[in-house]
Design goal:
Layout (H helix, E strand, L loop, with lengths): L6 E5 L4 H12 L3 E6 L2 H11 L3 E5 L5 H15 L4 E4 L10 E2 L2 E2 L2 H27 L10 E6 L3 H4 L5 H20 L5 E8 L5 H4 L3 H8 L11 H13 L6 E5 L11
Parallel strand pairs: 1-2, 1-4, 2-3, 4-7, 7-8, 8-9
Antiparallel strand pairs: 5-6
Helix pairs in contact: 1-9, 3-4, 4-6
């Protein structure tokens, strides 16, 4: 699918991986709708990108809000062909930790935002993609979802996070098969340790230790590298139903303490 003149909805689009993807798509002639909870950052980025972008405040886990965003995007751009799901939360919490047993709400919140939020956006946008006129390759749309290497290499305290990201991986092929007759592809990226606002909250010593676990290059991943892969997925019509690790060859082990 050509990026030029295409329209993309990007969740978590105001910062991090979503922001980098929005910039990359606009640089290649696309237009973007930024769905995010951070109104200040979202409006600032949309203003910077000019007529090629709009900001749509919304919570990906809220059905009505996401439905409203889809209508706003269609009013602004007529239609859209690409959906990039970057919205998500991190955080570690043990089932039984120093503060006692994990509250069920902590597990639920991660699942609601990361997994159900991703599916909610797919649910709300699928019928619109199906209504698109196919291009000369029969494509009507493409989904790019964001999982994590934690789906396979989950660390202590990541039971909720790994579950949410593993669910995204698991539904990739299922949805690709469901949407195949509609000319809609579904792909998932599994980032490793990326230099995003989420990871910026960690102490520098921990960031350095994580970076040195990457075989090559031994550093944190750059959001622009995620964006570059997302653009390639959009343009490569034979990528479908698959998940791709973007981690410099990193395999997180088990560090017993």
């Amino acid at each position: 699918m050509d990026i030029k003149n295409s329209v993309a909805i990007i969740t978590g689009g105001a910062s991090g991986l979503g922001e980098a993807t929005a910039r990359a798509l606009v640089e290649r002639g696309g237009r973007v709708a930024l769905l995010d909870l951070d109104k200040e950052m979202g409006e600032r980025l949309a203003s910077e990108l000019g007529d090629a972008a709009i900001f749509c405040p919304g919570d990906v886990s809220n059905e009505k809000e996401v439905d409203g965003v889809v209508e706003k995007v269609k009013d602004a751009f007529g239609t859209f062909q690409v959906v990039v799901n970057c919205a998500g939360v991190g955080g570690d919490i043990k089932v039984v930790g120093k503060k006692g047993v994990m509250p069920l709400e902590a597990f639920n919140r991660t699942i609601q935002i990361n997994l159900i939020g991703t599916f909610n956006v797919i649910r709300a946008t699928a019928s619109s993609l199906m209504e698109n006129n196919p291009n000369n390759k029969g494509e009507r749309g493409v989904y790019i979802n964001t999982s994590s290497i934690a789906a396979y290499d989950g660390q202590v305290g990541q039971s909720a996070y790994s579950s949410s990201k593993g669910g995204i991986v698991s539904m990739t092929l299922t949805l690709a098969r469901e949407f195949a007759n509609n000319g809609i592809r579904v792909m998932t990226i599994l980032p490793g340790v990326m230099d995003t606002p989420l990871l910026a909250k960690l102490p520098e010593k921990i960031r350095e230790r994580l970076a040195m676990q990457v075989p090559f290059p031994p550093r944190l991943g750059e959001p622009s590298e995620f964006a570059s892969l997302a653009c390639h997925i959009v343009e490569n019509a034979y990528l479908n139903g698959e998940h791709i690790r973007l981690d410099g060859g990193m395999r997180m082990g088990f560090g017993r303490k």
